[in-house]
């Protein structure tokens, strides 16, 4: 497993990085069922034998109730022992990072218990927001479902 490979989930002007090994599947938006199973979700995605809540984040990182037409992909994310969730986005890619030199921890004044972003990275003329599945799960209020 390569801890330096991150999935880049792009929505609006946001480049969100999550561990590549946490991405279970990437589906087209047509795979999303509009049945809502969790507050804040816009639908569910069937993955294996489960139904995972699907969320839409805006460029301001707030949950959205509608999906912009440019969002085409649904990225299903999970780690063992954690709640699974999916995020809709415009594009999905991957990026290799050097943890020691490329990541910049979030300044203390920008950190909070509800902020899922742990660090920033500037690469290939793009600002990238680095998070992990547990922080995103908590941000999406899925802690009780674990």
How would you summarize this macromolecular structure in one to three sentences?
The protein is mainly beta and 146 residues long. It is built from one helix and eleven strands. The strands form two sheets. Strands 8-1-2-11-10-9 form a six-stranded mixed β-sheet, with no helix packed on it. It has a five-stranded mixed β-sheet with strand order 3-6-7-5-4, with no helix packed on it.
Walkthrough of the structure:
- The chain has one helix at residues 133-139, and strands at residues 5-11, 14-19, 23-28, 43-47, 50-55, 73-77, 85-89, 91-96, 104-105, 119-123, 126-130.
- It has 146 residues and is mainly beta.
- The chain has one domain (5-145).
- The longest helix is centred in the last third of the chain and has 7 residues, at 133-139.
- The radius of gyration is 15 Å and the shape is globular.
- The mean pLDDT is 86.
**Secondary-structure element order, N to C:** EEEEEEEEEEEH
Number of helices: 1
Structural class: mainly beta
> Could you tell me the mean pLDDT?
86
Give the overall shape.
Answer: globular
Care to count the β-strands? 11
- The N- and C-terminal alpha carbons lie at a distance of 24 Å
Q: Write down the Rg.
A: 15 Å
For the biggest sheet, the summary is: 6 strands, mixed
Low-confidence stretches: none
Number of domains: 1
Summarize the amount of helix as a percent range.
under 10%
Please list the strands of the largest sheet in the order they lie side by side.
8-1-2-11-10-9
Percent of residues in β-strands: 35-45%
């Amino acid at each position: 497993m390569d801890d330096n490979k991150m999935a880049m989930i792009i929505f609006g002007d946001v480049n969100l990085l999550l561990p590549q090994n946490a991405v279970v599947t990437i589906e087209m938006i047509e795979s999303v069922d509009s049945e809502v199973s969790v507050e804040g979700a816009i639908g569910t995605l069937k993955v294996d034998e489960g139904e995972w809540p699907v969320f839409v984040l805006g460029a301001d990182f707030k949950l959205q109730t509608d999906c912009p037409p440019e969002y085409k992909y649904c990225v299903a994310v999970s780690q063992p022992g954690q709640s699974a969730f999916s995020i809709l986005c415009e594009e999905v890619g991957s990026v290799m990072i050097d943890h020691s030199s490329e990541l910049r921890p979030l300044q203390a004044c920008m950190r909070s218990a509800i902020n899922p972003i742990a660090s920033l990275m500037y690469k290939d003329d793009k600002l990238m927001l680095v998070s992990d599945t547990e922080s995103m799960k908590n941000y999406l209020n899925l802690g009780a479902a674990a």
